[in-house]
Amino acid sequence: MAQRGPYAKGVAKREEILTVALEVIARQGYRKTSTRELAGAVGLSEAGLLHYFGSKEKLFEEVLRARDEADTTRLGDESDAVGKLGAIVRHNADVPGLVQLYSTFSAEAGDRQHGAHEYFVERYQRLREALAEGIRDRQTRGTISTAADPEKIATLLIALSDGLQIQSQFRLPDEPADLLDHLIELLHPTPRS
Fold first, then answer.
1. CATH T-level assignment (fold) for domain 5-186
2. pTM here?
3. How far apart are CA 93 and CA 86, in angstroms?
């Protein structure tokens, strides 16, 4: 049964704000997007916009959560976490503003007092677990060496993907963007002669 009344309207408005914020930030970047501009785009005052999230930090955390959900939806058919990560890194080349938001916000959230600190702790933990499981699956199929420790490789894949996304802000058009795939290839077991 669909929800009605003020609560349903609030949820719908919040979703509208997140959708618009994803589009605007992807296009313009984190630094060039103001809460005033986002508020205007959804017909609210700046205070009205922040009412739905409590703070600017919380708004941007929710934008990142919405980005994660959109990636999950877009890659729903892909069951391999390692393959998903590669697809996300390739996709993010087309949304540099969201990459800028992620890299800047994650660096700021390294401070334990930052409002989004727990979001990133939980996100990295979930991602490491999913990647380690994907690596174990590939090891079972013989496509990644069993000498590789799944948790360590998962941590390295996350570090590489985050680093690649930061570097994408500085990449020249002819530089390769497939280093994540290259690392996976290096983990393949060597054929015995």
1. Tetracycline Repressor; domain 2 (1.10.357)
2. 0.81
3. 11
